[in-house]
Amino acid sequence: MKQAFLSLPTRRRLLVAGASVLALPAVGRAQQPAWPTRPIRVIVPFATGGGTDVTMRMLAPKLGEALGQNVIVENRPGAGSTLGTDFVAKSTPDGYTFVLATLSSTGIAATLYPNLPYDPVRDLTAVAPTVFIPTSLAVTAKGWDVRTLDQFVAALKARSNGYSYGSSGIGTTGHIASANFLRHVGAQAEHVPYRGAGASFTALIAGETQFTHDIPSLLKPHHDSGAIRVLYVNQSERSPLLPEVPTAAEVGLPDYKAYSWYGIFGPANLPAPIVNRMAAAIEQALSDAELAERFNGMGTPPMRGWTPDRFSRYVAEEVTTWAPLVRASGARVE
After folding, report:
1. Count of domains forming the chain
2. Are the beta carbons of 163 and 156 closer than 8 angstroms?
3. Residues spanned by the domain of 282
4. CATH code, domain with 275
5. What is the pLDDT along the chain (334 residues), one digit of tens a residue?
6. Ordered strands of the 211-214 beta sheet
7. Is residue 122 located within the same domain as residue 142?
8. Both 150 and 94 in a single domain?
């Protein structure tokens, strides 16, 4: 039987085709390089010293361990947290720039800012939540002997628009919480926005403002020192941090809504493998027993077990939930 021989041109074509087939996996790998290969930046859209800053700086080392790269925290405060959030929304979706956004920069901002430069659902990729944030009402002790909510409300009503409240910025959770509180009790006060919680607390302790809403763990040291007085915590049970302080329901505000959460977002169109890897790293970091104990000790429990899809749906629901509350609060962007 004769052996069939291929012509030289034919053999060349087959060799080229075979080489191309063998090269396909390598091309695929070149198109999808390993991630991450360099440090990752997480923007905190608030000034240093506040709850977001503290949370992210606690989370960053464990997140870096899970990802095998350093996680760098960068503060970009301004415009009620929307400045830093917008920066990330407009960043390249390569997996190296994220933001620790909050309810205020997503669900609240969507209604509060008529010209918000980003859409919280369309222009951000929701990766995973980190911690849940209850809020508390605190009043200054400087020149004031207000110790109960009834005394505080009576003082507000006796001097309409004669008092002021601070927050870490326009449109932040503290701002909306205080505005909704005033609506609930039928009183008025002037809003004074600051660039971060630290400046807001300094003004409260000095008596420059009369009250604020913020995280129990950040208020506790000043409450314990007697510089301020926390009048209630807005959660279903008394806070283990401030067991002597009643809940909002206990003081007659059962329907009052004031809370926040922090979550990590990337720009829109972030590739799914990066989203899933980052979400898994966040879950791994929050599962660390020591870190979880620290968060629980701050009264800000970790939000574990969330998929990116679930978190994305939750953010969209929060935009819908908070729209009527923001409008009812009367809060405005100057």
Report:
1. 2
2. yes
3. 40-133+259-329
4. 3.40.190.150
5. 434 434 444 444 434 444 443 444 443 344 456 899 999 999 999 888 888 999 999 999 999 999 999 999 999 998 878 999 999 999 999 999 999 999 989 999 999 998 999 999 999 999 999 999 889 999 999 988 999 999 999 999 999 878 999 998 887 888 889 998 998 899 999 999 988 788 999 999 999 999 999 988 889 999 999 999 999 999 888 988 999 999 999 999 988 878 899 999 999 999 999 999 999 999 999 999 999 999 998 889 999 999 999 999 999 999 999 998 888 877 777 5
6. 190-193, 164-167, 211-214, 136-140, 228-233
7. no
8. no
